[in-house]
Amino acid sequence: MFDLEWFGVLLLKGLVLPGVGLVVLYLSLRLPGWIAGLVNNKRIAAILDRIAQLAFTVVQEIQQTVVASLKAGEEKPNAEQLAAARDAALATLKSHLGSKGLIEIREALKLTDDTAVEKLLTSFIESAVLMLKQQEGK
After folding, report:
1. Cα distance between residue 88 and residue 77, in whole Å
2. Rg of the chain, C-alpha, whole Å
3. How many whole angstroms from its chain centre is CA 124?
4. SS (H, E, C) the chain
5. Which residue from 54, 136, 61 is spatially nearest to 69, judged by alpha carbons?
6. Per residue in 64-97, is it b (16+ CB within 10 Å) or e — as a string?
7. Residue ranges of the domains in the chain?
8. Would you give the distance in Å from CA 125 to the centre of its chain?
9. What is the pLDDT of residue 91?
10. CA-CA distance, 137 to 126, in Å (whole number)?
11. Which of 1, 23, 24, 51 fits a 20 to 30 Å CA distance from 14?
12. How far apart, in Å, are the Cα atoms of 129 and each of 25, 66, 97?
């Protein structure tokens, strides 16, 4: 006669336990990569947040010093003066980040060269300018 309990034990030994073992093996191989990715994502998020905060602070500083003096004149600032203000903001932001910070940004975001880092920082500056204008209601 066919014993159902014996068949269950054989099924457990032959299929379920090896399947569970394979799942555990797969997860143990994937876990370090998942943890490293999570840590890297948090690091990148922290770097981008730091850049955004510094860019906003730098734009406020440039607004108070350079742009305010440009607007004190009767004429509207021209494109050359605004570009000089942007360049001053970029130089100040790079100064605040320092050489180590710039290298960390380049490596963490896998940017190709210093020009790519400058473009990234410039976009953060432009975003901060827009946020500042929106706060001022302009």
Report:
1. 15
2. 28
3. 11
4. CCCHHHHHHHHHHHHHHHHHHHHHHHHHHHHHHHHHHHHHHHHHHHHHHHHHHHHHHHHHHHHHHHHHHHHHCCCCCCHHHHHHHHHHHHHHHHHHHHHHHHHHHHHHCCCCCHHHHHHHHHHHHHHHHHHHHHHHCC
5. 61
6. eebbeebeeeeeebeeebeeebbebbbebbbeeb
7. 26-136
8. 15
9. 94
10. 17
11. 1
12. 51, 13, 19
Token digits for 45? 């998020």
Q: Which residues contact 120 (CB under 8 A, 6 or more apart)?
A: 51, 105, 109, 111
Res 2: pLDDT: 57
75-108 residue pLDDT tens? 777 788 888 888 999 999 999 999 999 999 999 8
- Answer for the pair 108, 44: CB distance below 8 angstroms, yes or no: yes
Q: Which two tokens stand for residue 15?
A: 């299929």
